[in-house]
Amino acid sequence: MTRPSAVPPPVTAVLDASSRWLPARLGEVEELLREQGAGYGDLLAADVATTLAAGGKRLRPLLVLLCAGPDGGAGTVRAATAIELIHMATLVHDDVLDDAPLRRGLPTIAATAGRQRATAVGDLLFSRAFALLGEHDEARALELLAAASVSLADGELAQRRDAFDIGISEQRYLDRCRLKTATLFESACLIGRDLPALGEFGARIGLAFQLLDDVLDVSGPVERTGKARGTDLLDGTVTLPLIDAAAADPSIREADLRALGTGGAERLCDRIAATGALDRVRSRALELVAGAKAQLAGDAFDPEQRQLLALVADGVVQRYS
Q1: Terminus-to-terminus CA distance in the chain, angstroms?
Q2: Which long-range contacts (CB under 8 A, 24 or more apart) does 210-214 make?
């Protein structure tokens, strides 16, 4: 069995608590991921391999597998692989849009190979996700992932429209997070099993994941995040910690995000933290996780599935504790 590279402790806890089928199935996903860059030239193959080697939490494919259960079969492995390819593609494209130098503490493809080649890598990852499903006529997974991809694009466009605007509402931020993050988690669960409670579970932990990621951008440090503290602020991305902090300290609304610079971003992060915003946003995320776990009650889930999905939900919090 091959585990993903650099598997973080929360995912390791899920694998260790599971029956043998889950680590084996996730190993199959990893092998299939490695095949996706083959046949497109040495440069793109190397870039895809580099993107994979950076590791990741593999939460989305893990959710597909867990929701499908041990009888999921080859179609579930393909769907789990496809959703991770889409997630990876969005990260590569985000790095192009943001001119990001680092991802998970390593140089991005955009930084090492240039924007054009990075765009091609992201395009290849997207196309392979849908080709993988289309080759086997996985109609339902195709429909869910196509809809999720549209949501991702809508969320990115909304984020671009909102750039540098400290006056955006909390609801606007949450709607954007649902589009950019929560929908893909929801789709992962529904691909595994068409059950509304699972879709709600995925949407809630996806939203909690984004809230906590935004907290970590403010709290840092770079050793944990793999990027400079306040990177979102420097990009003009207004997140809930900033919105909450500005409500507590209206003078924060006077900050000019376009003129911050690295030192200014650090100082604004300190001002946000001083309002208690980070603790309040963490509490919101914890409420979302608790609500997600409440979706697992009832007879629709066997004890192992309930336990492992709850571990995934808890792992979202532990990753940022």
Answers
A1: 30
A2: 210/177, 210/180, 210/181, 210/182, 211/177, 211/240, 211/281, 211/282, 211/284, 211/285, 211/288, 212/281, 212/282, 212/285, 212/316, 212/317, 212/319, 212/320, 213/320, 214/239, 214/240, 214/241, 214/281
- Judged on CB neighbours under 10 Å (0-12, 13-18, 19+), 186 is buried
DSSP state of 18: S
Contact (CB, 8 A) for 237 and 159: yes
Q: Which amino acid is at 239?
A: T
Distance of CA 157 to the CA centre of its chain: 17
Cβ atoms within 10 A of the Cβ of 255, count? 20
Tokens representing 60?
A: 């989305």
Greatest Cα pair distance, the chain, in angstroms, is 56
Domains of the chain: 9-318 (1.10.600.10)
pTM value > 0.85:
yes
Reduced to 3 states (helix: H, G, I; strand: E, B; else coil), residue 106 is strand
Q: 103 φ, ψ to 5°?
A: -145, 120
DSSP 243: H
Backbone phi and psi for residue 106, each to the nearest 5 degrees, phi listed first: -120, 155
CB–CB of 219/278 below 8 Å? yes
CA distance 23 to 12: 9
Average pLDDT over residues 293-315: 93
Nearest-angstrom CA–CA distance, 195 and 176: 24
pLDDT tens per residue across span 81-139: 999 999 999 999 988 988 888 777 788 888 988 999 999 999 999 999 999 999 888 89
Element (H or E) spanning 103, and its range? strand 102-103
Q: Is 312 within 8 Å of 192 (Cβ atoms)? A: no
